[in-house]
Amino acid sequence: MRKVILTADSTCDLTKELCSRFNVQAYIPLHIVLGEKSYEDGVNINPPDIYKNFEATGVLPKTAAVNVGEYSDFFKRFTDEGNSVVHICLGSALSSSYQNAVTAASELENVYPIDSCNLSSGSGHLVIEAAKLIEQGLDAKTVAEKVKGMTSKVQASFVIDKLDYLRAGGRCSALAVFGANLLKIKPSIYVNNKDGSMTVGKKYRGKLDNVLLQYVDEQLAAYDNIKNDKIFITHAGIGDDHVKVVYDYLKGKNIFEEIFITTASCTISSHCGPGTLGILFMTE
């Protein structure tokens, strides 16, 4: 049987330690364009660089998908050695990366791109699930089919402290930002696990820590079939003290066997901005 190689887009937001633990062979970075220069997400640009640039210029970077040629070269690194590849992509509603990966795979053999229908560590959940299936000795096609059946079980959402990045990205008006900041409104963003698109959910009010704990309670109460093996706390440019508040709160509930803390990649951070935190888990 061919060796099955597990790879992912950089947007799955798994730490180096988790990639090593679950034998993720490689990330392929999406592109971050600042001015006239293009960077590779997580390779030669990181979220603090984006925040610093936005503070100085008020301009957000543009993000660009991995193109067909890049995917083809990436996959061939493994298929030329006789391996199969299972690759987890950023949700197709958010990027053309998945379609480009499919096009590249169609010109090769034994490459199976998967539309995660999600982003950030929502996709990361599927990477870990794929790793577990590969560990069981399943072939790449079977792994891909099983993981595709899990996309609707990933529950991903975030709370955004300030709306400045949403405004700069054209996702809300200056008046809405002014009103939200004045009233200390912090909207939640939900990921549609059918395609990865995002919608605004409940708008919270109050101090950030209080909002985060209310958000956690409501997310966990919304499902009666939560998979308790793992949960992610994924954040962008938020203080460690806020992360610790959420971590300690989740730990005290004794629901999850493992709580992973990860930082959102440039692609994700450039849309939501600093002061963002989400919990991402799966249901049975």
Short description:
It contains eleven helices and 13 strands.
Folded structure, characterized:
With 284 residues, this protein is of the alpha/beta class. Helix content is 40%, strand content 26%. The chain has helices at 16-21, 47-57, 68-79, 97-106, 120-135, 140-148, 164-168, 174-182, 208-221, 240-253, 266-272, and strands at 4-9, 24-28, 31-34, 37-40, 62-64, 84-89, 111-115, 154-160, 185-191, 198-205, 230-236, 258-263, 276-282. The strands form 3 sheets. A 6-stranded mixed sheet has the order 10-9-8-13-11-12, sandwiched between helices. Strands 2-1-6-7 form a 4-stranded parallel sheet, sandwiched between helices. A 3-stranded antiparallel sheet has the order 4-3-5, with helices on one face.
Radius of gyration: 19 Å
User: How much is the average pLDDT?
Assistant: 90
How many strand units?
13
Report the sheet with the most strands, covering strand number, pairing sense and barrel closure. Answer: 6 strands, mixed
The DSSP helix count reads 11
Share of residues in strands = 25-35%
Please list the strands of the largest sheet in the order they lie side by side: 10-9-8-13-11-12
Coarse morphology? globular
Helix and strand content put the structural class at: alpha/beta
